[in-house]
């Protein structure tokens, strides 16, 4: 005998769920793997990100960190650290390429916009309105 029918259906759903969850996990691991592969210049996306963060670390003060933390607060806690690192890397890239002597609120907002997908910009707009920050200078980037 093969067992009760409910147990057979349980096994079917269990294996579908297991394979689905493994596929989702594999997708995210593969994305991280691709970011760690060296590009033509010999450095990976993660290497450049770390480089820009290290180059601009001394420019971050508590106010800037608080703004970044507030902007990424809608991101689920599980992914928040990765999101902050990605955004901070993009902010650092902007500062280094502009050869700016100090970090500004404008750098943080522009870096956030450039580092995040368009679908997340609605959360940024909401947060900026809560903080009463004018979004008109960033309209071109938000479109």
Automatic annotation (TrEMBL):
Keywords: Membrane, Transmembrane, Transmembrane helix
Matching InterPro entries: YneK
Membrane-spanning intervals of the chain: 6-30
Protein name, entry field: DUF2621 family protein
Organism: Laceyella putida
